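Example protein
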Amino acid sequence: MGFVAKDSGGGNFKRVPAGVHIGRCYSLIDLGTQLTSGQYGEKMQHKIRIGWELFGEDEQGAPLTIEVDGKEMPMTISKNYTVSLGEKDYLRKDLAAWRGKDFTDEEAKAFDISKLVGAYCMVNVTTSETNGKTYSNVAGLTPIPAALKNSKPAGVHAFVKFDLDAPDMTVFSTFHAQLQETIKKSPEWARSQGREPEGYDEGVPAGESDIPF
């Protein structure tokens, strides 16, 4: 995939609280082409997962951290996007809000999404309930306020990049089982393993200065 976009959780664990938090993009995972369903039926869409580590405190003043292997680490949150920068696509809307300006037609033709890794923003988190479980969701992104640009918290999580054009199996082995299974459903995964994908229709259309990237 090359991380170029073109114009065309619940569970019993500590959840990210609702609010606006400082975020640093640390993770970019190519999910490959996935079958999605929605208002207009089923379609095959190339998906990517963007992840942020979060800094700050919850409403009770507790830090946004979680213990990992005996060490306090920033909590993380992620969001899946269709890899497309069409005017109505969510990826374009969120990145334009993050940048503080929309993409030019020329930029939208081929934007290297890997530029996001290491960039800071404000992450608006909301919560929702489905089947009795509470989920934390990325509702929006905005630029870091000018007052914070020279005092951003240092990043903690190591960068994670996974590209199905050249899959790093060491990185893949660190993913949880559900994420691995999602990636394995993609035709890009099959091809990376030297196999032709089964039941994949190439004709199904895909969906939809101070600037940090």
User: Anything to note?
Assistant: Residues 27 and 160 are 5 Å apart (CA to CA). The longest helix spans residues 90-99.
